[in-house]
Amino acid sequence: MDALFERTRAEGRAALVGYLPAGFPDVETSVAALTAMIEGGCDLVEIGLPYSDPVMDGPTIQEAAETALANGFRTSQAFDVVRDVAAAGAPVVVMTYWNPVERYGVDRFAADLAEAGGAGLITPDLIPDEAEEWEEASRAHGLDRTYLVAPSSTDRRLSMTADAASGFIYATAVMGVTGARQETSSLAPELVARLREVTDKPVGVGLGVSNGAQAHEIAQYADAVIVGSAFVRRLLDAPDPASGVESVRELAQELREGVVR
């Protein structure tokens, strides 16, 4: 991911990062939608690994994950999705809770992700203090480690997390579960400013972005604008998969315009 952020910083803009769960509403459509996000302007995509106990996910992403699991989605299929989406030309990371990685086998997961063309892993419930096994596996297979920080994180925690992270640091702009919101969090600029005091690594801001205006607002102070629930909602509300994929593409275009203007 280093090359991506070097490029966007040279262009004087933030990167646009989009999220969708693998296997939602089915594997084929999830690949098509993720590819459409890239074609619409996303610089990086996060592929969510559906999980049965998504404690940090809001109702929109939970509904999507439940649909994927009900349709029989398995962890091993995520690597097929990564492989197909990576062919579109943008970096691809997997966002997952730690339990599925541990059950699959940490080194095996890292090896399969790297083989599929993945760039790294975002682990919302894994903190650097407890990530020794992942640290070793990710380094062995050339994968980035993206950890989350929140407005409640202490300065010491921010510094430690920044030191351990690679690729980018994920700054959650609000307290609570994920979901699109009418307004971005007023805590986000302060959190990013605190991170700037301890690191020069890229900082992405997520949780709540749903339109181009919000994307533009966050792009003024963050290195990446992260959008998840708004993309998922486009698929959930669509009358059919093809319409959903096109709606995802249109949202990506709107968000990209907001990021670059």
Automatic annotation (TrEMBL):
PROSITE patterns: TRP_SYNTHASE_ALPHA (PS00167)
Catalytic activity entry: (1S,2R)-1-C-(indol-3-yl)glycerol 3-phosphate + L-serine = D-glyceraldehyde 3-phosphate + L-tryptophan + H2O
Keywords for this protein: Amino-acid biosynthesis, Aromatic amino acid biosynthesis, Lyase, Tryptophan biosynthesis
Keyword check for Cell membrane: no
Superkingdom of the source species: Bacteria
EC numbers for this chain: 4.2.1.20
Residues at the catalytic site: E46, D57
GO molecular function, one term: tryptophan synthase activity
Record's keyword annotation contains Amino-acid biosynthesis: yes
Pfam family, one: Trp_syntA
CDD domains tied to this protein: Tryptophan_synthase_alpha
Pathway recorded for this protein: Amino-acid biosynthesis; L-tryptophan biosynthesis; L-tryptophan from chorismate: step 5/5
Quaternary structure note: Tetramer of two alpha and two beta chains.
Functional summary from the UniProt entry: The alpha subunit is responsible for the aldol cleavage of indoleglycerol phosphate to indole and glyceraldehyde 3-phosphate.
PANTHER family hit by this protein: TRYPTOPHAN SYNTHASE ALPHA CHAIN, CHLOROPLASTIC (PTHR43406:SF1), TRYPTOPHAN SYNTHASE, ALPHA CHAIN (PTHR43406)
Protein name: Tryptophan synthase alpha chain
Organism, as annotated: Aeromicrobium erythreum
